[in-house]
UniProtKB/TrEMBL annotation, chain A:
UniProt source species: Wickerhamiella sorbophila
Keyword Transferase applies: yes
Recorded family membership: Belongs to the ubiquitin-conjugating enzyme family.
Biological process according to GO: ERAD pathway
Keyword Lipid metabolism: no
Primary enzyme class: transferase
Name this polypeptide is given: E2 ubiquitin-conjugating enzyme
Residues at the active site: 93 (glycyl thioester intermediate)
Cited SMART domains: UBCc (SM00212)
Catalytic reaction(s) noted: S-ubiquitinyl-[E1 ubiquitin-activating enzyme]-L-cysteine + [E2 ubiquitin-conjugating enzyme]-L-cysteine = [E1 ubiquitin-activating enzyme]-L-cysteine + S-ubiquitinyl-[E2 ubiquitin-conjugating enzyme]-L-cysteine
Enzyme Commission numbers on file: 2.3.2.23
Keywords: ATP-binding, Nucleotide-binding, Thioester bond, Transferase, Ubl conjugation pathway
UniProt domain UBC core: residue ranges: 8-168
From TrEMBL, chain B:
Known catalytic reactions: [E2 ubiquitin-conjugating enzyme]-S-ubiquitinyl-L-cysteine + [acceptor protein]-L-lysine = [E2 ubiquitin-conjugating enzyme]-L-cysteine + [acceptor protein]-N(6)-ubiquitinyl-L-lysine
Sequence ranges assigned to domain RING-type in this UniProt record: 113-325
Lineage: superkingdom: Eukaryota
An annotated Gene Ontology molecular function: ubiquitin protein ligase activity
Record bears the keyword Kinase: no
Organism of origin: Wickerhamiella sorbophila
Entry keyword set: Metal-binding, Repeat, Transferase, Ubl conjugation pathway, Zinc, Zinc-finger
Top EC class of this enzyme: transferase
Name assigned to this protein: RBR-type E3 ubiquitin transferase
GO biological process: protein ubiquitination
Amino acid sequence: MGPKKQSTAVKRLMTEYKQLLNDPPEGVSAGPISEDNFLEWECLLAGPPDTCYEGGIYPATLTFPEDYPLNPPKMVFNGPIFHPNVYKNGEVCISILHAPGDDPNMYETAAERWSPIQSVEKILVSVISMLAEPNSESPANIDASKMWRDDRPAFEQLVRSQILASLGISNE
Amino acid sequence: MMSDTTSEDHYEFSDQFDDDFDLQDPGNFDSDNNYFNIVNMEHVKASERRTVAEIADLFSIMVPMSTILLMAYFWNREKLSEEYIEGRALAKVGLTDADLEVQRKSGQKVQCSPRTCPICCDTYTRGFQLACKHTACIKCYERYLGEKLSSGDLLSTRCLGQHDCRLVATLDDFRELSKDLESGYLEKTAASYLQSHSSSFKACPGPGCTSIIELTSSLAMLDLDQYMVECSCGKRFCLGCKNDWHLPIKCDLASRWMNINGERMKNNLWLDKNTKPCPKCEARIERTEGCNHMKCRTCHFEYCWMCMQEWSAHNGMFFKCVHFQPSAEAKHSGRATSARLKHYSIRFDSNIIDSRRDVNVRDLTFSSQQVLNKAVPTLSYTRRILAWTYVLLFYVTGSNQKTILETSVSDIESHAETLAELLAGDEQAAAPCLELSGYLETRVENLITHALETNWKLDRNSLTYTPS
């Protein structure tokens, strides 16, 4: 570390990183990409068991703002993932990643929004449960949302073939 | 309608009184009628406090909690009361009945043995806690609540001590922390009250002016887009759109005109590029992220960002916008419209410029107060009306009504020219000046009535013109 004074964001993220190493939640691992920049994290999420995402390993990037933890990080999946709450560019859209008031459905569930007492761990746990239970009320990917509602078998088929492709196994 | 030309006198007179509450502008109204008052922020705050106290009384809750609930319901007392009785109101701010009991007490600063703050991870001895007694360091609380104030979000100021605690920092907690936070909080609640009552309060858009036009209930019910007021700061604006006066045309045409005529483009470039007005209340909304399902913070209207229509209209297609089509405006243009636009905008601009210049004539040659007080404002007002009548002429399609309007315009314009010449001449002409301005007043009044009461057929080409 250089002579620069550590910012609140970095100090807090170092503490969170330590906690995550000691006691990681089921199915995730996460940490800064480089020791020089604590505001950029890489994570790996395992698709939750008993869902069509099971068996998939999903890499994602967390980007923290300078004023973390006042404001939440952004989370983007790095590979393809077909899900109602993930934009086609990989950006995750769930309530805990929204500052309260940022969101068209504000205050309906104020307690689930971002607040400084939330943490990376809470975010990752929420994303895992988002994979298990998509929220079609606020879709980020309209096609996925529609297929998930109208044609569940086709939806699951598509997700599975994405997983196979990511593992280098052809579905044909 | 047009008693405007005498408003200058009234203002000099009423400025002698300090009591803003009773200022009454004759403007476009009969001076006998109490259509509106010019008030200040203190007046709005007093009105806000009464509302908060009523709700606090009604449900035997504390004033700070009453404020939070009212803000969550956009100051809609009826809806709040209804849902409070049904037991749904607290959930809206993420609280339970038990939390409400705890929240009766305010938070406090605490001195403690060194411990680690859950937010910044620094060691602290001076902490703060809400009534739940979960502690975080005082600096983090100050920073967090300061940030909440600047983002205007007072409904999710949650406990920083424990992640599953639902308690919300209220006015009492802001007050415990510091004087600045308390006064910031009061400013924000007043602003929220003002915004939610935008049908009865109109903040004056004049530069640096803090006055607010309070409409009486009878006026708040009317179609505001033909009511123009003059604030005590001298700013004249339209009650409907808060832009400059645009009689005899209505806000929608005036705003289209401002767009294509470039004025508004210059002033509001960022707004136009980055925001869209809520289709219901016209509050400017910037969508930074999220889906197309939008909910206006000001009026609660739910709509689709793509087609700007009500969200419920999308049920059938499940989050796929069926209404959106490329703007019709992009398809049309054409040289003919361009030439017409030029024709009318030259006339519009020159009348606006003259109307501003005429007001300055007063310090030139005339010594007769009567002429200064009557003829000069009349001439300036006439030019303004003419300018906006040209806009109307640009937008409406050929008809007898349009011909009648054109005839009036050319008559009024030639008489206005004569008056301008007289005013620039010698002061022997006082009597003809007064006579001419009397004539203009009548003609202009008729023109406004005609323009406002006619059901115009709009010209499709003018409406769809887009500057390249």
